[in-house]
Amino acid sequence: MDGGDDYDDTQAFDALEKDFQRVLDELTGDDTLQKFRGEYSRLFDALKKAQANERRLVKKIREQNTEAMANAAKVASALRISEDDDSNIEALRKQVERAYAMVEAANAKEEAAQTTVERLQADVEQLNGVVKRYTGLLGEDNTLEDVMEARDAFKRRYDEAADAAKYERQRADDLLSRLEARKEKLKEQRALVSELRAQLQSREEEEAREAGRQARLRAEVDKVKDTLSRREREAAELEREYQRAVTDAEAMQDKIEGLQDLAQTTANQMTLATKDRLAYKKKAEEAERRIADLQRETARQRDEARRAKQESARVDAEKRRVLAKLAAAETVEASLRRQIADHKSEAATVRAAFTEKEKEAETGTRALGQAQNQVSRLEHAVRQEAERVRIEATRKMEAEEAAAETEAAAKRTESELEKYARVNADLNKKLFALDRVVSALKRRILDLEAARSEAADTVKAREAQVKEAEKREAAAEGRLRQQKTLYDEVRNERNRYSKKLIASRDENTELRRKIRTKTRQAEQLELDNAAKDRTLVAVRFDSKTSSKKLEDKAREADELRGALVKAQREVQQLRAVVAELNAAVKRMDAEAAEQRRTAGKLVNERDMVGMQLIRRNDEVALLHEKIDIMESTLKKGAAQYSERLEDMRVLKLKVGDLRRQLVTANTAAGRVESLQRQIVQLQRELMAERTKTKALAEELENPMNVHRWRRLEGSDPSTYELVQKVQTLQRRLISKTQEAVEKEVAIQEKERLYAELKELLARQPGPEMAQRLAAFQKALRERTRQMRAMASELNMSQAQVEEYRFEVTRLEHDLTDARKRFYETRRRQALAGQRAAASAAAGSEAGLGGTAPAGSSAAVASETGARLAATQVKQAQAAAPRFVGGGFNTRMGSGPRGASTSAAGSVPSFEASALGAAGPAASGMGGPAE
């Protein structure tokens, strides 16, 4: 259909060109019409150029429409293959924004085409002016009115379309402003508002400087426009004078009719172009509706991503519960193994004194029952304390999620742990008393071995629970691997879309400033998500630290269980399993950190693209302002054009009156010569009659013959007749004289008008004024091109500065990460040194218990163990504040991490002190037996 229209337009233009060439050929033979021939040649060249520009713009608009449809198809295909992940949703959102930017670019190009159409319309109006000028000279008022009515109708249709487009654009701006107002409320609650304000201030300063430069450029453009306006007024004045001077334009009637046909054809072409523009605008609106659908689909994808995050949080909670159960199982296992060690030491003591204590078997049986009951009560108390510890740990994790109560919760946990240490010390003292009671039991070796086997069964049951927990952990790891696989797929998809984004970055460098507010809001939301991600990372880091502390406690407990080889092997096996799990968790955490770094880089790239989009939107706003200025100038020109048309109408009326007077005068002037000849003839006749009368009078006075009185055949007229005849001739002479005077006055007036017209023609300039106007237009175009080049260079420099800023920010983030890793390494080294010191202290304590002389008493050993335990408690208490104060990082001791670390770091020391106190006592119990 479009091709058929183009073919029809080409045929019409070719026919018009042939007619114009025929008219020029007709004008070639007459030298007096050479100036008209040059003028019409320039007009036709301008029309040809306008036709070529119109075709080029229509072709460009069609290409942009095709490109917009292709981009919409790409967006649809991207939505069909989208997955339930944040990164994929972000990529789709970027694709939607790119499609929206392409639609905006198409709209901007359409507006540029509209500007070109308006310029062509101005050319057509100029041609209409020429047609009207010559039509006015020929008295073709009806044709001029028809052309003006057609022009007014076209202008009304154009104004209606422009008003509709303006209303749609204003409605879109209102929607965007409401969306901006809602998102600004969220923006005010974010933690990075100061940095954003600083960036905004710097951006505003840059925009102020840019506005100053634009104001200066606009002032220069206004000066040039004023100069052009003066030149146009002068040209209009000269044109009016030229119109008054043209009196012999009747021979140009056919040529003017050809120009009228040309103007009508051009008006039809403009109407078709307007229809095409409206069709393109409808397509753009449809694309905007599709973009709105895509945005709703994106919102749905975001909801699904939020549900996926909730599922991930649930998996993390399940993991924490499994770790808590594992820690509780290790605590119970440690208690059982301590009981086994006690029972074995008791068995050795009973075997040594078996021969001496047979008589006390019955009493020992009762005491053993009481001891077993008390041991059961103590085990129940230990389980209750372990449950309380787990509850407190859960509360601690909840407190870590609420950042305002973290430090207080850590302090409460530390105080609870100290209380638990004191309870453990009391329990150890009670166990020492029970050891002294059980040492009297000599005959109950078999019962004790049965109790040991029962404890072994309990350990097996606990091991079964640990295996079940491992299975649950393996299932959680499987889900985590599945999530990781999905994340890798989404990341690959995101990388592919990032490449596409880089490929289309050149296309989006022109017109993007219109959605600056939405981009800033999206950046704020992304910053909020990043803050939440950092909070989640902190929580995971605390969980990781807690797991490391649990691992440290397990290792310290294992170091204190060196007495039992079999139990040590079992504990080592369990510890190996836990170490594998922790290694897997570390690997996953490392991978998550790598992915977060990658996400940070992508966010930086996204921010750079957003900044470029903002700058392009600023350029689009500037272009819109220029278009508004041009439209106002065009409206002023239209008003002036209407005034000139009114002046032309008045002047045409005057020219018609003068022409009628000239025709009358010419007609009268044609009769002057005949009247003069009649006057001369009558004067001659009068002179002859006077001469004859005089001769007759003289002859009458002096007769020459005597026969003069004879009767003649004729008769003389009477005196009355002669008097009447003389009076008639006198009246005729007077009237003719008056007519001659009037004709002479009219001839003088025509000569005066002819002199004035001659003077006006002498003052009228030639083609020099048109050449000067063309030179001014060329200078204006050159200045506009220079301004655009300067604006492009400025945008490029701003983009480079923003890239440098983002690079500096990225390097600062890398430096911060390196510092964090350095401080973490130093903290681990410090923890390793503390564990080595604790191991050395435990070894020295074991040596003291093993090399005690046979004559030392249980009281001395107990006192020594108590002193060592007190010393270790003091060392742990002294070391805990120093670690909280932070020789490594000042932020570690003031936040939740520092508090939890100090609390967890003090727990192994308390347990070591309690176990150390139990160790020497047990070894002391064996002294007398040996």
Task: Give an overview in words.
By secondary structure, the protein is an all-alpha fold. It contains 15 helices and no strands. Helix 5 (193-245) packs antiparallel against helix 12 (719-763). It is rod-shaped and about 225 Å long. The chain starts with a helix and ends with a helix. This is Cilia- and flagella-associated protein 58 central coiled coil domain-containing protein. Residues 406-661 form the Cilia- and flagella-associated protein 58 central coiled coil domain.
Write a brief structural summary.
The chain is mainly alpha-helical and 930 residues long. It contains 15 helices and no strands.
Task: Set out the fold topology.
Elements: H1 2-28, H2 34-80, H3 86-137, H4 141-187, H5 193-245, H6 253-352, H7 361-401, H8 406-438, H9 445-503, H10 516-559, H11 565-701, H12 719-763, H13 768-850, H14 858-885, H15 896-929
Helix pairs in contact: 1-2, 1-6, 2-3, 2-6, 3-4, 3-6, 3-9, 3-11, 4-6, 4-10, 5-12, 5-13, 6-7, 6-9, 6-10, 6-15, 7-8, 8-15, 10-11, 10-15, 11-12, 11-13, 13-14, 13-15, 14-15
Organism: Cafeteria roenbergensis
Coiled coil: 665-699
InterPro entries: CFAP58_CC
Q: Enumerate how many helices there are, as a single number.
A: 15
Multimeric state of these chains?
Answer: single chain
Alpha-carbon distance between the termini? 115 Å
Sheet with the most strands? none
- Written as H for each helix and E for each strand, in order along the chain, the element string is HHHHHHHHHHHHHHH
Percent strand: under 5%
Task: Please describe the structure with a list of short key phrases separated by commas or semicolons.
single chain; mainly alpha; rod-shaped; disordered C terminus
